[in-house]
């Protein structure tokens, strides 16, 4: 039974979620060519693109501002609009055309939150120290706080794209800091090689009254946890290269010299095919 | 005409998609792709390399590797006994010439695999057309031994052979798929996987019935040597550098300070001269 066009689009749209860093457009175009029905595609694909853009912290510039806004689940309203806590604006986003529209002042709706502002200041400091070209945004979240960090690097001329992404949640009532980290790399010169790392961790913090001290402390812990994870990645690389890879295929054969094909091809004829005439 | 154009475009999109989607899920993605574009089934199965699967030749008591080249319907031909599993009465069989080469090649590559892979499986298939001769050499090695990391290596070599009297011209297309999974330390789950493809051409002398196997053997050995180097470089060099380029363990302030100290040292040294 062949699937209906809508079912096909739903299946194809699921591919969008696993598109490598910076390649959503390419994957979208492939899906478009595959299903070959622009009308139905336009009707169906919007919600999938929205999910992908949020999952990958797609960053946009509001008109006439320098700062970037990340599209995430944490700054989206129930109506699907996005809030920028830096400029205190709200806006709509067209996920198919990647366009910001209907930007309005939202300052009356955003409560004063000096702790968020402290965290945001620390987040920017932290990102400038460890993620050249990266972005970080802090969002209030039902009395708690979420820090979203993203660094994308695209180098199509060298056939690679990479993304490092983390989400940290600070629970103000339990003092728990929990994080998920994701690293994805796509290398595609004469092939398709991808690194996928996923990790969650949490740590209970010592309570701290001063907002500035607490913000600094939170980012000290974030730095430690991320550093540990990065060092683990590097150690795993070395282990893979020195052990796993070598055990799969040797660089030289057991005999330490290249194979004598004349010998093994003819030896085997004698052994197994003595009667075969050529 | 319109339809063939569309299918051509559709196939291009499917191929491009498979070059982008995570190789970790290649089999799952392939199933979805075939549901979306069932009209491309034959083309996709023959042009997208998938991880090699193992079947057992119950007659010979050996395992063999399966691919599109030894498939007829739902059965696969074993290189050890030339029989199909599950049994197939009228399964396509190679010509006498192809089968003779196949027997020599399978024995030779069994030795090759023993010496380089220490425990891998290999299978070689030859087929002859009206005016063509070709073969596929498949090698698989799985390493589940370590708790800390697992790995699998699949080599797929396809050789087009053009006989020109006492010479032959070989066109070799090699795909090597390498899958690794590690979970040591603070890393959670780390999956580094994918495939590299390379194509080369070469001539070789034809002296006797085993010359093709000798020429192809050397060619494949050289190709695997080169690609193993590329894998080492790409997997464990380049992608690692990118990780450490995305996030720097050392803070920019420290890096800046180190640079200043180096600069000062340098100018002091120059001042002394």
Automatic annotation (TrEMBL), chain A:
The record's listing under SUPFAM superfamilies reads: Subunits of heterodimeric actin filament capping protein Capz
Give yes or no: UniProt keyword Protein transport. no
Question: What Pfam family is a match, any one?
Answer: F-actin_cap_A
User: Which key words are in the record?
Assistant: Actin capping, Actin-binding
GO annotation terms (biological process): actin cytoskeleton organization; barbed-end actin filament capping
MF-aspect GO terms: actin filament binding
Family (UniProt) = Belongs to the F-actin-capping protein alpha subunit family.
Function as written in the Swiss-Prot or TrEMBL entry: F-actin-capping proteins bind in a Ca(2+)-independent manner to the fast growing ends of actin filaments (barbed end) thereby blocking the exchange of subunits at these ends. Unlike other capping proteins (such as gelsolin and severin), these proteins do not sever actin filaments.
Q: What binding partners and quaternary form does the record give?
A: Heterodimer of an alpha and a beta subunit.
The protein, known as? F-actin-capping protein subunit alpha
Organism ancestry: Eukaryota, Fungi, Fungi incertae sedis, Zoopagomycota, Kickxellomycotina
From TrEMBL, chain B:
PROSITE patterns annotated for this entry? F_ACTIN_CAPPING_BETA
Q: Which family does it belong to?
A: Belongs to the F-actin-capping protein beta subunit family.
Function field: F-actin-capping proteins bind in a Ca(2+)-independent manner to the fast growing ends of actin filaments (barbed end) thereby blocking the exchange of subunits at these ends. Unlike other capping proteins (such as gelsolin and severin), these proteins do not sever actin filaments.
Keywords annotated in UniProt: Actin capping, Actin-binding, Cytoplasm, Cytoskeleton
The lineage is: Eukaryota, Fungi, Fungi incertae sedis, Zoopagomycota, Kickxellomycotina
Name recorded for this polypeptide: F-actin-capping protein subunit beta
Localisation per UniProt entry:
Cytoplasm, Cytoskeleton
Q: Which PANTHER family match?
A: F-ACTIN-CAPPING PROTEIN SUBUNIT BETA (PTHR10619), F-ACTIN-CAPPING PROTEIN SUBUNIT BETA ISOFORMS 1 AND 2 (PTHR10619:SF0)
Gene3D superfamilies on file: 1.20.58.570, F-actin capping protein, beta subunit
Give the matching SUPFAM superfamilies: Subunits of heterodimeric actin filament capping protein Capz
Subunit organization: Heterodimer of an alpha and a beta subunit.
Q: Name one GO cellular component term.
A: F-actin capping protein complex
Q: Name one GO molecular function term.
A: actin filament binding
Entry-linked InterPro entries: CapZ_alpha/beta, CapZ_alpha/beta_2, CAPZB, CAPZB_N, F-actin_capping_bsu_CS
For the biological process aspect of GO, one term held by this record is:
actin cytoskeleton organization
């Amino acid at each position: 039974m062949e699937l209906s066009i809508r079912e096909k689009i739903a299946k194809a749209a699921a591919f969008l979620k696993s598109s490598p860093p910076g390649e959503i457009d390419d994957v979208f175009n492939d899906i478009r060519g595959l299903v070959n029905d622009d009308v139905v595609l336009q009707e169906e694909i919007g919600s999938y693109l929205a999910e992908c853009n949020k999952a990958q912290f797609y960053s946009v510039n509001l008109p006439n501002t320098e700062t970037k806004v990340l599209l995430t689940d944490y700054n989206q309203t129930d109506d699907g609009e996005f809030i920028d806590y830096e400029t205190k604006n709200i806006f709509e986003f067209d996920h198919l055309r990647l366009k910001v529209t209907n930007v309005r002042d939202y300052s009356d709706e955003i409560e004063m939150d000096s702790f968020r502002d402290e965290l945001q200041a620390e987040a920017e400091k932290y990102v400038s120290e460890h993620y050249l070209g990266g972005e970080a945004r802090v969002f209030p979240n039902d009395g708690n706080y979420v820090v979203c960090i993203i660094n994308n690097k695209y180098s199509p001329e060298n056939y690679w794209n990479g993304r490092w992404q983390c989400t940290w949640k600070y629970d103000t009532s339990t003092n728990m800091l929990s994080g998920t980290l994701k690293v994805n790399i796509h290398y595609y010169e004469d092939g398709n090689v991808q690194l996928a790392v996923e990790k969650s961790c949490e740590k209970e913090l010592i309570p701290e009254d001063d907002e500035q001290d607490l913000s600094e402390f939170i980012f000290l812990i974030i730095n430690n946890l991320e550093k540990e994870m990065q060092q683990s990645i590097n150690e795993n690389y070395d282990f893979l290269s020195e052990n796993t890879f070598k055990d799969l295929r040797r660089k030289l054969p057991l005999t330490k010299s290249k194979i004598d094909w004349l010998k093994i091809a003819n030896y085997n004829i004698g052994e197994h095919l003595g009667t075969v005439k050529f | 005409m319109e339809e063939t154009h569309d299918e051509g475009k559709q196939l291009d999109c499917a191929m491009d998609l498979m070059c982008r989607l995570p190789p970790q899920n290649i089999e799952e993605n392939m199933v979805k792709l075939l549901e979306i574009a069932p009209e491309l089934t034959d083309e996709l199965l023959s042009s997208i390399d998938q991880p090699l699967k193992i079947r057992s030749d119950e007659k010979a008591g050996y395992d063999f590797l399966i691919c599109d080249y030894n498939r007829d319907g739902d059965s696969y031909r074993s290189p050890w006994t030339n029989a199909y599993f599950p049994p197939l009465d009228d399964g396509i069989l190679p010509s006498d010439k192809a089968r003779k080469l196949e027997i020599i090649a399978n024995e030779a590559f069994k030795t090759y695999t023993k010496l380089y892979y220490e425990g891998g499986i290999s299978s070689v298939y030859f087929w002859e057309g009206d005016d063509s001769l070709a073969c596929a050499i498949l090698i698989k090695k799985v390493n589940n031994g370590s708790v800390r990391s697992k790995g699998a290596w699949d080599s797929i070599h396809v050789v087009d052979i053009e006989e020109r009297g006492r010479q032959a011209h070989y066109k070799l297309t090699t795909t090597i798929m390498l899958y690794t999974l590690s979970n040591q330390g603070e890393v959670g789950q780390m999956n580094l996987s994918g495939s590299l493809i390379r194509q080369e051409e070469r001539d070789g002398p034809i002296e006797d019935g085993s010359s093709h196997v000798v020429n192809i053997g050397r060619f494949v050995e050289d190709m695997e040597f080169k690609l193993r180097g590329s894998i080492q470089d790409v997997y464990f060099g380049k992608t690692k550098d990118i990780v450490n380029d995305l996030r720097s363990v050392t803070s920019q302030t420290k890096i800046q300070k180190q640079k200043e100290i180096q600069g000062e040292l340098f100018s002091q040294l120059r001042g002394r001269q």
